[in-house]
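#lab-general

N.A. 3:47 PM
ok so I finally got the sequence cleaned up, no stray characters, all 182 residues accounted for. can someone with queue access submit it? mine expired

B.Y. 3:52 PM
send it over

N.A. 3:53 PM
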Amino acid sequence: MENTQENPTSQTPTPADETPAGKPQEGVVAENSAEVALTAAQAKIAELQEGFLRAKAETENTRRRAQEDVTKAHKFAIEGFAEHLLPVIDSLEAAVAHESDDLAKVREGVELTLRQLVGALEKGRVVALNPVGEKFDPHRHQAISMVPAEQEPNTVVAVLQKGYMIADRVLRPALVTVAAPK
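B.Y. 4:20 PM
back already:
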């Protein structure tokens, strides 16, 4: 008996595979459009992946630049304040270099230098606390003692050492004596 079966892959389309107008059946068209859609989807995925990687790299660069800016800000934050102090240093060095026996001139120079220093501190937003007559505030004052006084209880009577604030933050509380309750 002879093998009369043909190889199915080598078959040519028969009239049964075609529509009456001679066009391929819908299954073949659907298969081709599915391949086109798959190719388009893969291209879109590749495009989105590339966009994602670019956005990720840009985000990393922005984060790194911001971190460098913060590091520089911490490193050079005092630069402006130091610039305000340089004239004070110049004045003190001139005073040390100057040889004078006139105490009045020396005192005048020290007073001028003190004014320069106070001005430099004010430019740096450092303000002295001199709370005489104010109510005692434990956040801004440090009570050393309580003394009998004619003032209301818990009122600052004397300042033993000035306190200092920068903006609204206490650098050093003022050392004070407070009126004792009667």
